[in-house]
Design goal:
The complex is a heterodimer. By secondary structure, chain A is α/β, with parallel strands linked by helices. Chain A is 38% helix and 17% strand. Chain A is globular and about 55 Å long. In chain B, the strands form 2 sheets. In chain B, strands 4-5-6-8-7 form a 5-stranded mixed beta barrel. A 3-stranded antiparallel sheet of chain B has the order 2-1-3. The chains are: A alpha/beta, B mainly beta.
Chain lengths: 351, 149
C-alpha cells in the first residue's frame, strides 16, 4: 500500500452508499490520505470506468502504480428501495413513471429478441444453469447452489417474461486490481513470479438513455461499438478470445452479448448456449466465474471483479473445474444501465 | 421525491408543457422548426442542430408494439404496502403491462397498455398512444387498441 501512488474508486450508487463521496470512506478505511483518490461512475459499468481511468492515470505518466477499487453495499435496504435506486439508472423522467425497473428494461429486450429471433425461455434458463454451476466452484461467489432448467422456468415472474432465476443478485461486494506502468509491472512480476497481464484493448461507448429512443431493442449498440474499439486497439477479433466475462445482469443480456461481441451471428445467441459452446470446455467460455447472475452483482465492484477474474484465468489461477485451458487473451464486457455506457476491455498474458 | 403530475421534476424543466398537453388529452412530441427532427421524449433544444423554440405536435398513432413487459417486483414508489391494507392478499395485485409503440413520426412512445388482455398482446400489433388523467389527478400515457380510438 505504501508504494501505491493513487487510487480510483468505483461506487455505482451514492443513494445506496448514503454518501456523496464514497471515495472518502474508502480512503479513510485504507489510511490512504493525503494521496490522490476520486470516484467514477457509469451505473453498473462503474467498475470498468475505474479500470479505464486507472489505465489512463498510468498511461498519462501521472502515477506508476494505481489501485483500482470497486465496492457496493446493497443488502442493507429493502428490495423496493434497491429496485428504485437501480431503476433510476434508466430514464428517471420519462420511463420511471411507468414503474420501470431494471428487470423491466431487460424484459423489453427479451420480448423483442424472442419475437424476432425465436429465442426461448429454455435458452435463457440454460444461461442461468451454466452460471450457477460455475459459481458453485468459485469460493468468492454469492450463490453456491446449482439449479436446473425446471427451477428457472418454475420461478416466480419478476418482469415478464423474466423470472426470478433470470435475474442477477442483489449483493454486497468489493474487488481491487493494481495497475502499473510497464517497468513497475515487470519489477513486480519478477518479485512475485507471476506473469504480467497487459490491458491491450479499451473500448467505451454510449447510447440513448430512454429505451424508447433506441432503434432496435434486440441489440446493445454500445456493446457493438465498444467491442469494435477494443478489438481494433488490441489488434484481435472475436475468434481470438480464449475466455470472456460478459454483463449477464439478466440471462437475456448474456445471449445478446454473445451476438454483439461477435461470438456468434446476430440472433444465434440462444443456439450458442444450447450447444454448450460457452461452457468452460467450449470454444468460447463465458462467465465461468458464475457471472453477475450467480457470483453476484454489487454494482460498483462488478467491472473491477471482471478484471480480477480475467487476470486469474490468464494466470491459470482459477479454481479447478472452472479454469479455462491455457488462455492467452481474455475479454471483459461491462454494461451501465441498459446499454447507456458500455465498456469492453481486452487483456493479454505475457507469453 | 414527488411525482408531480406526470414525472419526477418535469414541472421544473423547459418541457413542462408536456404535462399540460396530457391534461388536455393529448400526447405531444416536439419538432425542430429548423431541421424538422421530431423528439420523444420532448426536448427544449434540438439534439441534432441545437435550435431552440420547438413546436409541439400531437402523437395519435396507430403505431406498432415494439416490446412489452409487466413488472411484478416494483420499485418503492409503486409498491403498495399490503401489510397496511390487506394482509396476505398480494395475489390481488395484478401488474399492468407496459409497452413501447413505434409511430409514423419516427419516434417511440412508452405507456401503460390498457384495455387489451395480456394474453392477446403480440409484438407488432397496432396500438395508439393516448393521454389519461388518473383518479388521483396525475396524468399519464396509455397505449390502447384501435377500437378504443
Amino acid at each position: 500500500m505504501r508504494d501505491v501512488e493513487s487510487m480510483v474508486v468505483s461506487v455505482g450508487s451514492d443513494e445506496l452508499a448514503f454518501a456523496l463521496q464514497p471515495s472518502a470512506q474508502i480512503v479513510d478505511y485504507l489510511g490512504f490520505h493525503p494521496k490522490p483518490s476520486f470516484r467514477v461512475e457509469g451505473a453498473c459499468a462503474s467498475g470498468s470506468m475505474a479500470v479505464r481511468t486507472g489505465w489512463m492515470t498510468v498511461a498519462s505518466g501521472l502515477s506508476d502504480l494505481v489501485l483500482v477499487v470497486g465496492a457496493e453495499k446493497m443488502t442493507e435496504v429493502p428490495t423496493p428501495v434497491v429496485t428504485e435506486a437501480l431503476g433510476k439508472g434508466g430514464d428517471p423522467m420519462w420511463e420511471y413513471p411507468f414503474g420501470m425497473t431494471f428487470p423491466g428494461y431487460y424484459a423489453l429486450i427479451a420480448r423483442a429478441h424472442m419475437a424476432r429471433y425465436g429465442t426461448t425461455a429454455e435458452q435463457l434458463a440454460l444461461v442461468a444453469v451454466k452460471n450457477h454451476r460455475y459459481a458453485n466452484l468459485n469460493p468468492y461467489a454469492h450463490m453456491h447452489k446449482e439449479i436446473t432448467v425446471e427451477d428457472v422456468l418454475r420461478s416466480r415472474p419478476i418482469a415478464e417474461p423474466l423470472k426470478l432465476y433470470d435475474c442477477s443478485l442483489i449483493s454486497d461486494g468489493a474487488a481491487a486490481v493494481l495497475l502499473a506502468s510497464e517497468d513497475v509491472a515487470r519489477e513486480i512480476s519478477k518479485g512475485s513470479g507471476k506473469p504480467p497481464i497487459w490491458i491491450v484493448g479499451l473500448g467505451l461507448a454510449t447510447d440513448a438513455l430512454s429505451m424508447s429512443e433506441r432503434e432496435d431493442l434486440t441489440t446493445l449498440w454500445g456493446t457493438v461499438e465498444a467491442a469494435r474499439q477494443a478489438y481494433r486497439m488490441a489488434g484481435v477479433g472475436p475468434t481470438d478470445i480464449d475466455v470472456a466475462v460478459v454483463h449477464d445482469c439478466f440471462t437475456i443480456a448474456e445471449i445478446v452479448a454473445y451476438e454483439d461481441l461477435g461470438f456468434c451471428e446476430k440472433g444465434a445467441g440462444g443456439k450458442l448456449i444450447e450447444e454448450g459452446r460457452t461452457h468452460v470446455d467450449g470454444d468460447i467460455p463465458v462467465n465461468v466465474d458464475g457471472g453477475l447472475k450467480a457470483k453476484g452483482h454489487p454494482i460498483g465492484a462488478t467491472g473491477v471483479a471482471m478484471a480480477v477474474e480475467i487476470t486469474k484465468q490468464l494466470r491459470g489461477e482459477a479454481e479447478p473445474g472452472r479454469q479455462v485451458k491455457d488462455p492467452e487473451i481474455g475479454l471483459s464486457h461491462n454494461v451501465g444501465g441498459s446499454g447507456q455506457h458500455v465498456a469492453v476491455h481486452i487483456f493479454r498474458r505475457e507469453g | 421525491m414527488e411525482f408531480e403530475r406526470f414525472s419526477l421534476f418535469l414541472k421544473h424543466t423547459k418541457v413542462k408543457e408536456f404535462t399540460e398537453w396530457l391534461e388536455q388529452g393529448e400526447v405531444r412530441a416536439t419538432r425542430c422548426p429548423r431541421c424538422g427532427a421530431v423528439h420523444y421524449p420532448p426536448r427544449a433544444e434540438c439534439p441534432k442542430c441545437f435550435e431552440e423554440g420547438m413546436e409541439w405536435i400531437p402523437l395519435r398513432g396507430p403505431g406498432k408494439l415494439v416490446s412489452y413487459t409487466a413488472i411484478h417486483v416494483t420499485p418503492d414508489h409503486f409498491t403498495p404496502d399490503f401489510s397496511r391494507q390487506a394482509p396476505f392478499s398480494e395475489y390481488l395485485y395484478r401488474p399492468a403491462p407496459v409497452g413501447i409503440v413505434e409511430l409514423a413520426e419516427g419516434v417511440r412512445v412508452m405507456g401503460w397498455i390498457v384495455g387489451v388482455p395480456p394474453e392477446d398482446l403480440r409484438v407488432g400489433m397496432e396500438l395508439c398512444p393516448r393521454a389519461e388523467v388518473l383518479k388521483d389527478g396525475r396524468a399519464t400515457v396509455v397505449l390502447v387498441g384501435k377500437e378504443r380510438e
